[in-house]
Amino acid sequence: MYGKLMANLENSYSPYSEYPVSAIVVMKDGTEYTGVNIENASYGATVCAERVAILKAVSEGRRKGDFKELHVMVGSDSIGTPCFMCRQVITEFMSPDSKVICWSTRGESKEFTVAEMCPYPWGEEDLNK
């Protein structure tokens, strides 16, 4: 997965932060969907790589229960982790025991479960119905 993430970093549109991020979400059937961060001069319109990959999968018909794991790489020697907006989307579509593997450009990685990364998720049961 390391090589695919590295190659995908080239697709990042990050002229403002100069902080490219690459993500690949893997489905239970082995299908992969890629994403990169896409910045905007209006920073609030920026979209993170993790959400691009997950939402691309959803836009192609994937649903809760289809997701196996998520791989994320930031364009630096450090291991980065998803922001909290991405973590919210991750908890919406991935199960608590799904893996999130975070990579550095040096090939180091750290693995988490969704439950470890998001111990107190906010979900459907928290909505006032």
Architecture overview:
With 129 residues, the chain is α+β, with helices and mostly antiparallel strands. Helices cover 26% and strands 23% of the residues. The chain has 4 helices and 5 strands; from the N terminus they run αββαβαββα. It has a 5-stranded mixed sheet. A hairpin with a 4-residue loop joins β1 and β2. The mean pLDDT is 96.
How would you describe this structure in keywords?
129 residues; alpha+beta; 26% helix; globular; 23% strand; five-stranded mixed sheet
Strand order of the largest sheet: 2-1-3-4-5
Please, how many helices? 4
DSSP strand count: 5
Mean pLDDT across every amino acid position: 96
Low-confidence runs: none
Order of secondary-structure elements: HEEHEHEEH
Query: Helix- and strand-based class?
Result: alpha+beta
Using only C-alpha atoms, the radius of gyration works out to 14 Å
Which oligomeric state applies? single chain
Strand and helix layout:
Layout: H1 2-9, E1 21-27, E2 32-36, H2 49-59, E3 67-74, H3 84-93, E4 99-103, E5 109-113, H4 114-117
Parallel strand pairs: 3-4
Antiparallel strand pairs: 1-2, 1-3, 4-5
Quick rundown:
The chain has 129 residues and is of the alpha+beta class.
